[in-house]
# Entry
Amino acid sequence: MILAAIPAYNEEVAIGTVVLRTKRHVDQVFVVDDGSYDKTAMIAELAGASVFRFKENQGKGIALRYAFLHAKEIGADIVVCLDGDGQHNPDEIPRLLTPILSGNADMVIGSRFLNIQSDIPRYRRAGQTILTSLTNSITTTKVTDSQSGFRAFSKKAIETISLDEKGIGIESYMQRSADDSGLKIAEVPITCRYDLEHASKMGSVHHGFSVVNTLLKIVEERRPLFFFGSIGLGLVIVGVTMGIWVVEVFSRTREFAIGTSLIGIMLIILGILSMYTGVMLHAIAQIVHRIGK
# Structure
């Protein structure tokens, strides 16, 4: 059984068409209305989708988590995720299904940057390139479009992938989770429309910061030594620099900058504590990893 999962928030303009076109390629369309205050849920139901409604906006990650729970309950063999705003072309769903049906992949990403087939705005391309590079830097699997919401998942992926991220950074979190679980990831080229964006959508800058925040959380979890060590080293360097400045000023003027020196000492102490925290968390992570084996 193939289930299409569509998280939607105020998509009354496009959701009906998306559902109708998606139904031609899957066995069931499941729309998660993420607290919309328009007629998204009603139109989706009229178009033939099964609909679950959140009373308040929970975030894309929560919506997809619920969709995956539904997939497990009905015993879906494949889940296809796509956005409800009409940017993705449902007629390209078979492209995403092929690698899974052939056993070559557990998660298939519809990439906008693989054999580029759409007129992608320059600011979009630049931003997505940065986010993809950052996501690739914390996983062993490298992709061309880490932020694409057009994806397909095998039954193995449905059962094993973790969806602990609440917000828009869920795509990066999926890549991390698939990588940790040893799932096979593939990409296929897709098209994407950018003339359908509207004011209710999260702004690109906000989107970018949300994803970066997710990536920082992943780095904190996966590489605590690097994360806390880098912060600690930076604090120590700033503290030492301030100390050198205090000494230099004292040698020239015989005046001791007490406030600056205290701040410098505090930064050095905090830096050392941060590095110690990184070492301890790294050791704990290694122990947990060995136990898990």
About this structure: The beta strands are 2-8, 28-34, 50-54, 78-81, 107-111, 151-154, 185-189.
